[in-house]
Design goal:
It is built from 11 helices and 12 strands. With 338 residues, the chain is of the alpha/beta class. It folds into 3 domains: 7-64, no CATH class; 75-256, Rossmann fold (3-Layer(aba) Sandwich), CATH 3.40.50; 258-337, Roll (Ubiquitin-like (UB roll)). The strands form 2 sheets. Strands 1, 2, 3, 4, 5, 6 and 7 form a 7-stranded mixed β-sheet that branches. The longest helix is centred in the N-terminal third of the chain and has 22 residues, at 43-64. The radius of gyration is 24 Å and the shape is elongated. The N and C termini lie far apart (78 Å).
Length: 338
């Protein structure tokens, strides 16, 4: 099948051949990837362009050096939790980040647009959750620092493209590459939990079936569910139509297994305008005291708790004294006495 290359592609290809610096080569290659026709006749050419881009990015990593790279690639944690968007090239991670947060990542129709982690803050009710758009996970582009960032995160969103002809291969590729770094995406919690061997990391994950608005999405979703529904909770979403976007922050919060705890001074009313402390489910009064101020760990005499009992099976408290080991529930109000 003929490639039918466009004049724009041929011009970009000439600039790539004439380029001297890495920046010039990268810019020309990006335009080649954006303008090459997408059909069966250009499959091998597109694969070759992806390999070239991965090689250029590797050269850039080497040029920057490890010390400088560690600063570029580290992502300071903000908000109640840190959630990473991971996936194969061109699955729509940057578009999801832009839709869910106020971040303005570079978005393009060619692979490897995202080269370094791009953070943004996603609001959920009265807290913020940090989303981080990661570079694509692919055989030729995966770098050890990407695994290091993922190990520090609280959760991952495995994003897939429902319009891709290689849907299953892309999902399998991402899972396999991460497993090669001993990072396992934990879609559904095993019962009993699988103990982690030294060096292994289990990361809670949801599978986002993106681009659900495109024509082949329904059939592709059925195929995806057939192969992966036993391993992951699969959520169809669309940035264009908004499908699944409204409920996604709540689902992420629930999968993170967090509780929000409010504090108040003795004799005062709780200030719901102040952000609550966000803790892992199962956290105790002592854990909350440590989050408020580390000195509370040694000086805490007792605590009182107000609870609505909104969490399933939780008792209602109305200022009762509780032990340091009392397990806090979402929405609890805590009064600490030192």
């Amino acid at each position: 099948m003929p490639a039918n290359l466009t004049p724009q592609y041929l011009a970009a290809e000439k600039r790539f051949k004439d380029a001297v610096t890495l920046e010039e080569k990268t810019e020309a290659l990006e335009e080649m990837m954006a303008t090459i026709p997408k059909h069966k006749g250009t499959e091998k050419m597109r694969a070759d362009l992806r390999r070239r881009m991965a090689k250029l990015l590797a050269e850039k990593d080497k040029k920057h050096g490890a010390a400088k790279g560690s600063d570029i690639y580290s992502v300071p944690r903000e908000g109640g939790a840190q959630v990473l968007l991971v996936g194969a090239p061109n699955v729509g991670k940057s578009s999801l980040l832009a839709r869910l947060t106020r971040a303005t990542p570079e978005i393009a129709e060619y692979p490897f647009t995202t080269r370094i982690p791009q953070p943004g803050m996603m609001p959920y009710e009265n807290i913020q959750i940090q989303l981080v758009d990661m570079p694509a996970v692919a055989e030729d582009s995966y770098r050890p620092w990407m695994g290091s960032v993922l190990r520090q995160a609280d959760m991952a969103l495995l994003v897939v493209d429902l319009s891709s002809d290689d849907l299953l291969e892309e999902v399998d590729g991402v899972v396999r590459i991460l497993a090669g770094s001993r990072i396992h995406l934990e879609g559904k919690r095993p019962s009993p939990p699988v103990p982690a061997e030294p060096g292994e990391h289990f990361c809670p994950a949801l599978l986002l079936a993106n681009k659900s608005d495109l024509p082949p999405a329904r059939e592709c979703l059925q195929i995806l569910q057939e192969f992966y529904e036993s391993a992951f909770e699969i959520l169809p979403v669309s940035v264009l139509t908004g499908e699944g976007m409204e409920s996604l922050p709540r689902i992420i919060f629930e999968r993170l297994d967090l509780v929000r705890v409010y504090t108040k001074a003795p004799g005062k009313k709780v200030d719901y305008g102040a952000p609550p402390y966000v803790l892992k489910a199962g956290s105790t009064v002592l854990d909350a005291a440590r989050a408020v101020h580390r000195d509370f760990v040694n000086t805490l005499k007792y605590a009182r708790v107000w609870s609505t009992g909104s969490s399933e099976g939780s008792p209602v408290h109305d200022g009762q004294m509780v032990e340091r080991t009392y397990s806090l529930k979402d929405g609890d109000i805590l009064e600490l006495h030192a």
